[in-house]
Specification:
The protein is mostly helical. It is built from seven helices and no strands. It has one domain.
Length: about 150
């Protein structure tokens, strides 16, 4: 997604890309969900990663993608993408309620519903970070993270 910002591709094109990506993988999961569950004998087969793509698009869709092309703008956008992706993975792996129950739904819905839920949680978490951390604080936050790591 940062490629869109760096190349200064219009934000509307990026949103269209995210929506088309999510819809394509949603249709694939719903169409082949029963087959995948039977094939791998699992409610949410690890071999199916299309559901992860759907979940990732949700927090990315709600980011403020109004980059100006400056270094500060790219750093802020990169920071938010990192938060969105990390939050999604954390919620997808930990499966807080009701995500574990959603995973047991039949067919393709069982494969994608927990990831959609994790995407919603990640979008809310990222939205909170956007309201708490200001773009001018990112240099300080990144420097602190680098010291910790």
């Amino acid at each position: 997604m940062l490629v869109f910002v760096v190349l200064e591709i219009p934000v509307s094109v990026m949103y269209l890309f995210l929506v088309c990506t999510a819809l394509t993988f949603l249709i694939a999961c719903l169409s082949f969900g029963d087959w995948a569950q039977d094939r791998w004998e699992s409610d949410d087969p690890q071999a199916v990663v299309a559901d992860e793509t759907i979940g990732q698009t949700l927090p990315l869709f709600w980011l403020p993608w109004h980059g100006s092309g400056t270094e500060e703008s790219l750093l802020w956008t990169g920071f938010l993408v990192m938060i969105a992706v990390s939050a999604f993975r954390a919620f997808d792996v930990s499966k807080p309620p009701p995500l574990r129950a959603l995973e047991r739904m039949p067919g393709g819905w069982g494969i994608i519903s927990d990831d959609i839920g994790a995407g919603v949680y990640a979008a809310l978490t990222t939205g909170l970070v956007i309201r708490v951390v200001q773009p001018t604080d990112v240099d300080t936050v990144v420097a602190h993270l680098l010291r910790v790591l």
